[in-house]
């Protein structure tokens, strides 16, 4: 691990139950902590050495030392701790058998009594040397195909063997990368074995064989001087074997202690006259043992169940079984039930362990029929609630009655507590009040949620919690994010009235609508839209203080009609517009147009005139014309039709479709918002046209000629 910042002294440690062990790391960082099987080890922050006293079986597993906030980085230290249930050199269901001596660093399997051999060795007792390039229980595998059993082909490789051996370097190498050769005088996997050649510095580093056929030290024999030449006496099965230093303390020993036993000789005497007394054979004492003592891990604040299983024939009575705290007290431990199945009794207890107490040590005590007692210890932990270091709550959207938020998912690298996360909960509080409410009765699986049924224009505080599985699995509150709901649209329109108007201004008045119509805690203003009548001007929007009740709209044109409407505004929404109000600035009737200038043709008349000279200009003009008289006739027209044309120009207005040789009356009127001017009237004749053809000739006795002509 060339980029690692935290390195373990050893990747695997194997100890026997009841021994002490210390887990060590080397690091160049300041802030790190330990976890055991995923659970935080209390009071372990910034500790390079983690001592474990009187190790129990439930302390076996994976220990991880990691940089805070970088839990899943490859640069963290991982150590595997094996705890063998039997004392050293013992095996069997009751540890009643003595292990065969395993040579060259082999380890005795507590279940089978067989030796698990390290890389580079094989055999029933690992007595056969192979070399640094060989591995496997029977040594049948090689790291390269060069054919040299002592080649460095396995350098830099880590071999993980069956329990209780664990992981180790190849024979002849050590170190976290398995690339460092053994120091002089040591050999084997991880260089944990001691040479016993006559000169300890001349043994091979992989197998421990003596170079140049050097003899073994006194008291040692074998192919690599690892077999004691003095016989080893058998150890009585009932005699406890004192522990020697384990690999956890930095030294190893392959010597099984021997003991002298003195046989007890019982001499029987008989008499010819006195009969021998009848001897009653001793009755066997039922055997009993604690098979297991375990618990169900729960969330902080929940009751956990302790289960102690004992065996015996017959099973021990419940009166002979008790569960207490390690110190012996039993207050707070509640007995639940006990069940018997054949030779097994299972007893269950309930107790509360808080996060501040964890791990809390308990003991299951079994009183045997022979008067002795056996016990098993149990360290009980609880799951640590999930805590956000930084939830990064963001507001995505707001309406008048809802707010949508999103947040960063809980991450074990950055946050604290035990996962996995199965969902989230969102809580909200009216800012400044103590009215915390849960936004949803169900767990939220996503990291985005919309909180509904909120009050308009109200400020809320939002927090998020992450939950793990099980009752009380909810973690602690995240940091607060604050947001405000929007206002609704003001629901009433203003009523406008004109109190004054001049040549360049108009004064408007209004009344403020009732508060319940504001749609918000306050109105922010009144927006007035002003536009000129017709299409001669663009709209203009003006804002005024709502509470003023009056506003002067200035910079207007004189003699101009304006269309005005208004709406109240709050800080988010514009309300309903008022009805349109038409108001003119100092508007009077336009003056009459000047003299009409007209020219004619047979069927049309062209009319022009000068602009009005009054204060208020016309908006447009009306031209009315009618047939006044046909000049071929003596009388005036009495039923003539009047035509009307609207125009915005004063020059060259053509009146077409007229009768030839006829007199027309022409009237021009100026118009503005105040009304119509006095008319200006003129008369003009159209030009004569050519005569029509004779359509009928009648001859009588008296020669008279009657001609009918078409009307001109």
UniProtKB/TrEMBL annotation:
The lineage of its organism: Eukaryota, Metazoa, Echinodermata, Eleutherozoa, Echinozoa. This is Uncharacterized protein. Residues 240-256 have a biased composition (Low complexity). Keywords: Disulfide bond, EGF-like domain. Residues 389-488, 490-588, 589-690 form the Fibronectin type-III domain. Residues 91-127 form the EGF-like domain. Disulfide bonds join 117-126. It comes from the Eukaryota. Coiled coil: none annotated. Residues 231-256 are annotated as: Disordered. Transmembrane segments: none annotated. Residues 286-381 form the Ig-like domain. InterPro entries: EGF, FN3_dom, FN3_sf, Ig-like_dom, Ig-like_dom_sf, Ig-like_fold, Ig_sub.
